[in-house]
Specification:
Blueprint lengths: L3 H4 L4 E5 L4 H12 L3 E6 L18 H7 L3 E6 L5 H14 L5 E4 L14 H21 L1 H6 L4 E5 L10 H22 L5 E7 L12 H8 L10 H12 L10 E4 L7
Parallel strand pairs: 1-2, 1-4, 2-3, 4-5, 5-6, 6-7
Length: about 260
């Protein structure tokens, strides 16, 4: 077992898209582990889903503080460079450092190449891919000053398939490749960059599915259950810990065996 409270004590962790879903789960677990957590999102209130996260009563920061942790919310649109710059400046001025960057913010707009508009395509790619590049680049000075800087990008198992439309899956494929490039470039600073590729996780992003589609899909999974945000958080904690010191440029599939099947 990791002595997480000791390892992450006083470390500063930024989680984008941290108000809801996977980001919320990751932020809460880092808060429990002793890190100071900045939750960055376009809104502080957690999204309520049709099928999952239907009864959330607290914001992410409130939940972290309720568990005895330290957290704050910062409004940021990670598809907007000005907003990203304001976020980075805030962290520099308030904390003076950043140890762990979790690039989680993302969006999916359903539709084939015949259906999705160019503006919609741009919206998905700008947030899912360009935003990760910009925020990682802007955070470099702080990460270099950390004794063990960590960049953890959230992609998807759809990075390896052609489904989910011409924007979402290709943007996640780009994240996998960008992670490798960042790992190569920043290894000399003792910064690692790794990627987590979730399968179906019980979050509001699944609202576009029908109940039958969800039920049928679940039957195909070897572990016979969907993932929870905490499943992704556990992988993020590993990549942020000293147990992963010699792992960089990796992409870890966390999907309950979906890809294997």
């Amino acid at each position: 077992m990791y002595d997480l409270n000791s390892e992450f004590k006083d470390k500063v962790c930024l989680v984008t898209g941290g108000s809801s879903g996977i980001g919320r789960g990751i932020a809460i677990e880092f808060g429990k582990a002793g890190a100071k957590v900045i939750v960055a999102d376009t809104q502080e209130k957690s999204k309520i889903g049709k099928y999952h996260d239907t009864d959330i009563k607290t914001t992410t920061s409130e939940e972290i503080e309720k568990n005895g942790g330290i957290s704050e919310f910062f409004e940021c649109d990670c598809s907007d460079e000005k907003s990203i710059n304001e976020l980075v400046s805030h962290i520099e001025n308030r904390y003076g450092k950043l140890d762990i960057l979790v690039n989680n913010a993302g969006v999916h707009i359903p539709g084939s190449i015949e259906e999705i508009g160019i503006e919609e395509w741009d919206k998905v790619v700008n947030l899912n891919f360009r935003g990760i590049f910009v925020l990682s680049k802007r955070s470099l000075n702080m990460l270099k000053n950390s004794k063990s800087g960590r960049i953890i990008n959230i992609a998807s198992i759809h990075a390896f398939h052609g489904v989910m439309g011409p924007a979402y899956a290709p943007s996640k494929s780009a994240v996998v490749n960008l992670t490798k490039n960042i790992a190569i470039a920043l290894g000399k600073y003792n910064i690692t960059a790794n990627c987590i590729c979730p399968g179906y996780i019980e979050t509001p992003i699944q609202d576009y599915n029908t109940e039958k589609e969800i039920s049928d899909y679940k039957k195909t999974l070897p572990l016979n259950r969907f993932g929870k945000p905490s499943d992704i958080a556990n992988a993020a904690l590993f990549f942020a810990s000293n147990k992963s010191d010699w792992i960089t440029g990796a992409s870890l599939i966390v999907d309950g065996g979906d890809s294997a099947a």
